[in-house]
Write a structure and sequence with these properties.
about 550 residues, alpha+beta, Jelly Rolls, 3 domains, 4-stranded antiparallel β-sheet, 25 helices, about 10% strand, disordered N terminus
Length: about 550
């Protein structure tokens, strides 16, 4: 990466780049120019909006979308602007008041206080109707952003326009009733006054989508979001049932003295199937309501089960996949009648590789680019390659090419990585685990752990191995082959000659070490290393 930056350090790009702020080209005169520009940017597409990254894949597409908005649909509001995001949060707060506060507060609040408490709900709905006509929307089926005013108006008229308008009727009815134009005792009028506000629940999906956008914006946990959404759905369902039962049964004299709290407790008891509540009169409507509540309770129990299974499946999906793989491996072992020791070794390998988080490596390789995989490999192996003495004279650009050619391998306890007397054609870097270096006679020389390396002499010198390396604990290593090394370094003959000289000196020192080293009997002497370079460098 550093070499690429050096190559372009003195480069002067001749490509014509667009202006960073396109708004200044459209708003360049008039009063309050800075305020108008900020307001326009606030209503244009923003990279901070949580949905922008799903529809706009590049900076060029982002600039094109800005130009399309300003040139063709200047007076429309972009659906992925921060204005829309902030307004949706405000409107969701108003809807939450209507869904969870209004049904509870209304029965216990005097009429004059009720009017002041919910004064902001109906004007907010009026603003929502106006904003919906001038705000575009993402077309999920074709993955585009619709900004055409006719298409936006047509889509809104077909969806929420009628329910939004009917939700504004209750304050008009209340105003006409207070003026004496309408009769307060009219049953149909009273029914409309509590039925029409229930139409606001048609916007419940709007409320949930806004919560999802907030989760994406804040990085909130998806599992916790599913729990909160399930609880909100359950509460909303019970609130709607309680409101309907309360408004219907209050028309009968038998229930005139019952409070809203008693109705709510009775509905919850019947829905949860723990009691029949106080619905024990001989009225046909009361019996029908009891049957309806029992059926609704059955539906709620099913919904709770479905939500629980969804959360459980999402939370434990990786573990479930791992258990499936383990069961398949176990069945294979039994079918092949493998010994117990081999079975333990196989499961030890699986546990070490996946760390109880199973993933499909072929899928990851297929969906990621070659450049990204090389970058990950370079980042992981950077520290290990910097410790190799033979690589000290190599520039960073060559080291990056060597890191990109590494291959990952996993060994289990008892596996022999290299054996004394065999010709060496590769070196190894320990990413995780512990190995022991032994002489041809079986004497332990030292232990190598995370970040250590061994076998580097075989990259440039065609000699036999003078030590055996045996795995002690499950070990993950990177292998660098001689062919890969020479294909990168052959373009630098002077460096290759220096590395060859250092390798011969290193080989001579290693041979002397094995012939002159005294016998080690205490195991603590094998683990304790005075020079840190000794632990990270094994005899060849």
């Amino acid at each position: 990466m550093d070499s690429r930056r050096e190559d372009t350090k003195h480069h002067k790009c001749e490509l014509q780049d667009g202006r960073d702020d396109i708004v200044t080209s459209f708003i360049d005169a008039g009063i309050f120019i800075n305020i108008r520009r900020r307001l326009k940017r606030f209503m244009m597409i923003s990279p901070s909006h949580p949905l922008t990254r799903f529809y706009i894949k590049s900076l060029c597409m982002f600039r094109s979308e800005e130009q399309r908005h300003l040139i063709k649909y200047y007076y429309m509001i972009h659906p992925m602007s921060m204005f829309v995001f902030v307004y949706r949060i405000y409107m969701s707060f108003i809807l939450a008041l209507n869904y969870f506060v209004w049904p509870i507060v209304v029965p216990y609040t005097p009429r004059h206080a009720r009017n002041y408490l919910f004064m902001s709900i109906y004007p907010s709905y009026l603003v929502l109707i106006i904003v919906s006509f001038i705000t575009g929307f993402p077309e999920r089926n074709v993955h585009t952003i619709m900004m055409n005013p006719k298409s936006v108006s047509r889509a809104y008229l077909k969806s929420h326009f009628s329910t939004d308008v009917l939700s504004l009727v209750p304050p008009i009815i209340r105003f006409l009733t207070n003026k004496g134009v309408l009769n307060k005792k009219d049953v149909r009028l009273r029914t409309l006054r509590w039925v029409l506000p229930m139409l606001m629940y048609c916007r419940y999906n709007y409320f949930l989508e806004t919560l999802k956008e907030v989760r994406l914006y804040t990085g909130f946990s998806n599992y916790l979001f599913l729990v909160i959404k399930s609880i909100l759905n359950l509460i909303s369902f019970i609130v709607v049932l309680t409101t309907i039962v309360y408004r219907i049964l209050r028309e009968f004299s038998v229930y005139k003295n019952k409070t809203a709290g008693e109705f709510a407790a009775s509905v919850v008891q019947v829905v949860m199937m723990v009691s029949h509540g106080f619905h024990s009169s001989e009225l046909l409507s009361d019996k029908l309501i009891s049957i309806l509540l029992v059926l609704c309770g059955f539906v709620i129990h099913l919904l709770v089960l479905v939500y629980t299974m969804e959360i459980w499946y999402k939370f434990y999906s990786c573990e479930n996949m791992q258990n499936t793989v383990y069961d398949a491996v176990d069945a294979f072992i039994k079918y092949k009648a493998l010994p117990v020791g081999k079975r333990k070794q196989i499961f030890l390998y699986l546990n070490f590789k996946y760390q109880r988080k199973f993933y499909k490596e072929s899928t990851i390789v297929r969906i990621t680019s070659d450049a990204l995989r090389r970058e990950v490999l370079v980042r992981i192996s950077r520290e290990s390659t910097q410790r190799v003495i033979l690589f000290n004279r190599l520039p960073e650009s060559i080291l990056e090419k060597l890191r990109a050619g590494l291959s990952c391998e996993i060994y289990m306890p008892g596996d022999v990585i290299i054996k004394a007397g065999m010709l060496g054609r590769s070196m190894f870097f320990i990413l995780a685990g512990t190995v022991v270096v032994k002489t041809p006679q079986g004497k332990e020389v030292c232990y190598l752990r995370d970040g250590a390396h061994f076998g580097e002499i075989s990259l440039v010198v065609n000699v036999a191995r003078v030590a055996t390396v045996v795995v002690v604990t499950p070990c993950q290593v990177f292998r660098l082959n001689r062919r890969q090394f020479l294909s990168v370094v052959r373009h630098y003959p002077d460096l290759l000659r220096q590395i060859h000289t250092q390798a011969l000196e290193r080989y001579a020192d290693t041979t002397t070490l094995h012939t002159d080293e005294p016998e080690l009997t205490d195991r603590s002497e094998l683990i304790q290393v005075i020079d840190p370079d000794v632990e990270n460098r094994a005899p060849e």
